[in-house]
Design goal:
Structural class: alpha/beta
Strand content: 15-25%
CATH superfamily: Thiamin diphosphate (ThDP)-binding fold, Pyr/PP domains
Low-confidence stretches: none
Shape: globular
CATH topology: Rossmann fold
Number of strands: 8
CATH architecture: 3-Layer(aba) Sandwich
Order of helices and strands: HHEHEHEHHEHHEHEHHEE
Distance between the termini: 64 Å
Number of helices: 11
Radius of gyration: 19 Å
Largest sheet: 8 strands, mixed
């Protein structure tokens, strides 16, 4: 009928508000509902696509929830042993320096099993990017206490809460890495709100750009939730994150252009 607006009239490039990046596969995300991993995946892949780097990027995902990244990121991916992603990324980048290389790691992987690989890659100033998802717990393997678990925070291996006298203090691995001369850009962001997504995406683009400028290691921590491991509904988990994780792991740039940011 004349004057009737059809679906094809609406779905035109000039009317398109959002389109899923082609660098995310069509496989349905298998993360728990409310988990921040899916949003982090999308941000990284959007930046890679927008920068025209799809054919020259290699991602490295180790063990844990992060290992699922290769099912959803439609780029070349390598799987590393638990904690060893920085070592594998070092080899890839040194053998093929023209490639854009990143690791995608959780806190149990990066800050516990892989502490040595992380610290030494950062200290050497290896020229790749690390994306670090910090949810303060071992998410995939049963909700055990991680190095990033907060004081008093309950987990399957600290059912009465983390006891600092017995279990030690949470490890602020991002601040630690910022002290090393080999790191050039170190920041902590989040993805639980649209505003935080925009800030994180800006940081991702900056990190990749600095990698191309051969500035050394760039590091982005993304504080996220683990509503399954925390035994909370997604909305409740996000609020708990804001109230408890952010005070201990404050958001913002920690090191920019090779210099620590004064607070």
């Amino acid at each position: 009928m004349e004057g009737t607006i059809t679906k094809s009239d609406i779905i035109k490039p000039e009317n398109l508000v959002y389109k899923k990046t082609d660098l995310m596969t069509d496989k349905v995300l298998s993360y728990c509902p409310g988990c921040g991993h899916g949003t982090a995946h999308r941000i990284i892949m959007e930046v890679i696509e927008e920068m025209g780097l799809a054919e020259t990027t290699i991602g490295v995902a180790p063990v844990g929830c992060s290992v699922l990244a290769y099912e959803f990121m439609n780029i070349d991916m390598q799987q590393a042993a638990h904690g060893r992603a920085p070592a594998l990324a070092t080899a890839i980048k040194r053998l093929m320096p023209e490639k854009t290389v990143f690791t995608y790691q959780g806190d149990g992987d990066l800050a516990a099993i892989g502490t040595a690989e992380t610290i030494h890659a950062a200290n050497r100033g290896e020229n790749f990017t690390i994306f670090f998802i910090n949810n303060g717990i071992y998410g995939m393997t049963g909700g055990q206490m991680a190095p990033t678990t907060l004081p008093g925070m309950k987990s399957s291996t600290s059912p009465f809460g983390r006891d600092l006298e017995m279990m030690g203090h949470p490890l602020k691995i991002t601040e630690l890495l910022a002290q090393l001369p080999g790191t050039h850009f170190v920041t902590r962001q989040a993805v639980h709100t649209p505003a935080n997504v925009r800030k994180t995406k800006k940081a991702v683009k900056k990190a990749i750009e600095l990698q191309h400028e051969k500035k050394g290691l760039t590091f982005i921590e993304i504080v996220s939730n683990c509503n399954s491991g925390w035994k909370m509904a997604p909305v409740q988990a996000n609020q708990w994150m804001v109230d408890n994780m952010f005070p201990y792991y404050p958001l913002g740039d920690i090191k920019v252009d090779g210099k620590l940011v004064e607070k």
